[in-house]
Amino acid sequence: MSKKAINVRVTTMDAELEFAIQPSTTGKQLFDQVVKTIGLREIWYFGLQYTDTKGYLTWLKLNKKVLQQDVKKDPTLQFKFRAKFYPEDVAEEIIQDITLRLFYLQVKELLLSDDIYCPPETSVLLASYAMQAKYGDYSPETHKTGCLASDRLLPQRVVGQFKMSPEEWEKRIMIWWADHKGMNRENAMMEYLKIAQDLDMYGVNYFEIRNKKGTELFLGVDALGLNIYEKNDKLTPKVGFPWSEIRNISFNDKKFVIKPIDKKSNDFVFYAPRLRINKRILALCMGNHELYMRRRKPDSIEV
Amino acid sequence: LFLFVARNKRANQGTYSPSTQEMTGAARNQMPVIHKVPLQERLI
């Protein structure tokens, strides 16, 4: 191996991979190596995430050399292999087991860490599917109270909302778990995702923005378009711009403009805290919209 | 696409037109292209 080789560590949701790359290696070459190693073919949802030298979480550009992208200089360069885009319907789109598992693990992590809001009842139901996926069928003989003590079962917010002991939570989860008897791992993960994808915050990329008046808001980018949220409510959009209703989106430095197709509606102007946020917003819009269009062309997405 | 590239020459500006993409996308539709490549960020 040449002296110039650079060590790279890529962590997926369930594996840690080590590679050596050359200074000339592009993002795509690294990405291809990762997907080949894990046997993933439904690659269009995924990307490589890294922390740049300024501390921002960034997606690696595939058409540029890895070393030209401002990756934080550690002896081993660190990347996370994550879903960047979400399917509109998991049951329709996800084919491979590995794709299913990576989405399941990523979404579960977001739910448990409260990055996606989930009501208590749904959290318990989701935990029961997670247990089915992890341990198989519930059996009263082997799964005694306390056996889930080491599992992360519920979001902290949900636990804090009720005066219930861990054992009482466990019991509730076990009741549902017993209901899933006979369901295999993949089906349990799929059922989990089918419920999770209906949560309001699922699949939304939020950005802190300000309107012309300086009011703080959130912009959400997802598979179907752009949404504007008030600062205190990330669940219900105040205004929505589906892709089909947008003529044009553009930025100039920190200013971002959404132009609706309908000439009678006003342009929506907002300000991102930094130029690089606007670049990220536009890139996410383009990627999501491209997948949106591909889904509406029969047979264009093939494994 | 050319239009897009041309208009993104300045690194502090960018623009994208979903409606135009959907119209030109109709033409691309006729080509038997199977996209296997993940989406690349086309910004500077």
Main attributes of the structure:
heterodimer; A: 303 residues; alpha+beta; seven-stranded antiparallel sheet; five-stranded mixed sheet; 8 helices; 12 strands; globular; B: 44 residues; mainly alpha; 41% helix
Q: What features would you describe in this structure?
A:
The complex is a heterodimer of chains A (303) and B (44). Chain A is an alpha+beta fold. Chain A has helices at 27-38, 90-93, 97-112, 120-135, 156-161, 166-179, 185-196, 275-295, and strands at 6-11, 16-21, 46-51, 57-59, 76-83, 205-211, 216-222, 225-230, 239-242, 246-252, 255-260, 268-271. Chain A is 33% helix and 23% strand. In chain A, the strands form 2 sheets. In chain A, strands 9-8-7-6-12-11-10 form a 7-stranded antiparallel β-sheet, with helices on one face. In chain A, strand 8 (225-230) and strand 9 form a beta hairpin. The two termini of chain A are 34 Å apart. Chain B is mostly helical and 44 residues long. Chain B is built from 2 helices and 1 strand; from the N terminus they run αβα. Strand 10 of chain A pairs antiparallel with strand 1 of chain B.
Radius of gyration of chain A: 21 Å
- Most extensive chain interface and residues per partner: A-B, 39 and 24 residues
Q: Cα distance, first to last residue of chain B?
A: 15 Å
Low-confidence stretches of chain A: none
Major sheet summary line of chain A: 7 strands, antiparallel
* Poorly predicted runs of 5 or more residues of chain B: 26-36
Percent range for β-strand residues of chain A = 15-25%
Based on CA atoms alone, the radius of gyration of chain B comes out at 12 Å
Describe the SSE topology.
The complex is a heterodimer of chains A (303) and B (44).
Chain A: E1 6-11, E2 16-21, H1 27-38, E3 46-51, E4 57-59, E5 76-83, H2 90-93, H3 97-112, H4 120-135, H5 156-161, H6 166-179, H7 185-196, E6 205-211, E7 216-222, E8 225-230, E9 239-242, E10 246-252, E11 255-260, E12 268-271, H8 275-295
Parallel strand pairs in A: 1-5
Antiparallel strand pairs in A: 1-2, 3-4, 3-5, 6-7, 6-12, 7-8, 8-9, 10-11, 11-12
Helix pairs in contact in A: 3-7, 4-6, 4-7
Chain B: H1 2-7, E1 13-16, H2 18-29
